[in-house]
Specification:
Distance between the termini: 34 Å
Family: Belongs to the fatty acyl-CoA reductase family.
Enzyme class: oxidoreductase
Organism: Diatraea saccharalis
Strand content: 5-15%
Structural class: alpha/beta
Number of strands: 4
GO biological process, one term: long-chain fatty-acyl-CoA metabolic process
Largest sheet: 4 strands, parallel
Radius of gyration: 19 Å
Strand order of the largest sheet: 1-2-3-4
Catalytic activity: a long-chain fatty acyl-CoA + 2 NADPH + 2 H(+) = a long-chain primary fatty alcohol + 2 NADP(+) + CoA
Shape: globular
Length: 213
């Protein structure tokens, strides 16, 4: 039986020559949602590269605003320099209204996609969805399930009508507005896929490693 080697037992030369390392070499990455516990992952980078902070530029934003609240100078930087985008920022509350969930999670995704369309070096837009985006289905395939009501129509209806009956109709068996907003975002990303090379991942849960604690 082949011996299993942990990362710290693998020669550094082999680690540096991996396809993953080669893909990221010389490229800049934009990650949303770093103020959440995702940011704790950066603490571990100190173990491998104490000078990693010199390669990080914090960018202030607000996903509830146009262009996710990024100022014009930083937008210009993103458009010129970024090759890979990880979009993990979201409001994960399970008790928010349908209108709030769509405004914060889905519309923010669209604002970021608009920015990505103008990124000159973009290779991949990676969207962190959820395994529960289509939990109203008994079988979930690796594909995007489109809603019965067009996106623009849903935006307009939710803006002016907030009835419980409408909410339940749109949720279509989903347990909360969060999972619905993620499903809607997946459809949105598919709509932009010709202009923005995209990947959708559906983790069941995202959390830091136990060693952080």
């Amino acid at each position: 039986m082949e011996e299993i080697k942990f990362r710290n037992e693998i020669p550094v030369e082999s680690q540096l020559n991996s396809p993953v390392v080669n893909f990221y070499t010389g490229r800049s990455v934009f990650i949303t949602g770093c103020t959440g516990f995702l940011g704790t992952a950066f603490q571990r980078l100190n173990e491998y590269n104490p000078n990693f902070r010199a390669k990080i530029k914090p960018i202030s934003g607000d996903i509830s605003k146009k262009y996710i609240g990024v100022n014009e100078n930083d937008l210009s930087l993103l458009r010129q320099e970024i090759s890979i985008v990880f979009h993990s920022a979201a409001d994960t509350s399970f008790d928010m209204s349908l209108n709030d969930a769509v405004n914060i999670n889905t519309k923010a995704t669209e604002e970021l996609l608009k920015i990505c369309k103008d990124m000159h070096q973009l290779k991949a837009f990676v969207y962190v969805s959820t395994a529960y985006s289509n939990c109203n289905r008994s079988v979930i395939d690796e594909k995007v399930y489109r809603c019965d009501v067009p996106l623009e129509t849903q935006y307009e209806v939710l803006e002016y009508c907030k009835s419980e009956r409408l909410t339940q109709y749109l949720l279509d068996g989903r347990p909360n507005a969060y999972s619905y907003s993620k499903a809607l975002s997946e459809e949105l990303i598919q709509n932009y896929s010709n202009a923005v090379p995209s990947i959708i991942i559906r983790p069941s849960i995202s959390m830091p490693s136990h060693s952080v604690y």
